[in-house]
Amino acid sequence: MTTVDTRKAAPRRRVNLHAIGPLAALVVLLLIGMALNDNFLSYGNLTNVLARSAFIGIIAVGMTFVITSGGLDLSVGSMAAFVAGVMILTMNALLPTMGLGVGVILVGILVGLLTGLFGGAINGLLITRGRIEAFIVTLGTMGIYRSLITWLADGGTLSLNYELSGVYRPVYYGGILGISWPILVFALVAIGGEIVMRHTRFGRHCAAIGSNEQVAKYSAVNVMRVRMATYVLLGILVGVATVMYVPRLGSASAATGVLWELEAIAAVIIGGTMLKGGFGRVWGTVVGVLILGFIGNILNLTDLVSPYLNGAIQGVIIILAVVLQRGGLKAH
Questions:
Q1: Is residue 11 part of a domain?
Q2: Range(s) of the domain holding residue 208
Q3: Where are the alpha helices (DSSP H) in 129-222?
Q4: Which pLDDT tens digit goes with each residue over 197-209?
Q5: At a CB cut-off of 8 Å and minimum separation 6, what does 99 contact?
């Protein structure tokens, strides 16, 4: 008589491809860069890439919360240009009365943060209170901000006073232990964003709203308040990124921040955040920012593909990332 073994087989641990995929892609990209150029992993090149990517990275952290909650913001690049223009005009106007010094810079920084907050609040109010689709609202404000900076600059470029620019430059070029301030600020924003997304009620509510707004309402989540907060947070982070960006060139024009929204959205999607909302991964967004930064760096260091095709490559990456997300959902 044969006996039947009724013991249950131990469940197999499945490898989370969505989690390790971006990391694997980053490692492969680093290996390709090493093979193509001996200076790719030099300290100077790495810090340069990180500093240039910090602006997009700071904005992308805020974009992660917006997309996780089921929203979208196409205006961040134009908003950054407008914030930069307002900062430069404010500091230049205050220079004769306040004199050359840190005080003018601090006021300019405060104005930049408040302008970003105000821009994010406008988007949030139109979307939550006005009940207009996020795509329509931010597409409209994208055009508004871009037109405003063009008008403020009279079709040209707004430049910060030369002497004042020298006082402001350390905010971008200075740092601690050889690490520039933009990199340090990006790291702090990313760490804070990951903590908020993973370990706070706000992060859980963002995911709940993006997953199913009606269920979130029945679960006593204040959908309008949380969604409004995501756009305000993103606006503030646009202000932070612009505060770090202005001392780099000391100018603002209609060309400032072009395609920043594309890069921020691409970084978020590459990092594993679901485009339709419901799940967000801040550390994945950081990996996505690094991937985009190193792709651009490799294009600049080699002659394989023209750097002018960087935007096209980012567009292809977004499409592939969304296709892979849908494939993963169907598999489950």
A1: no
A2: 42-258+275-281
A3: 134-152, 162-168, 170-173, 181-199, 201-211, 213-218
A4: 999 999 999 999 9
A5: none
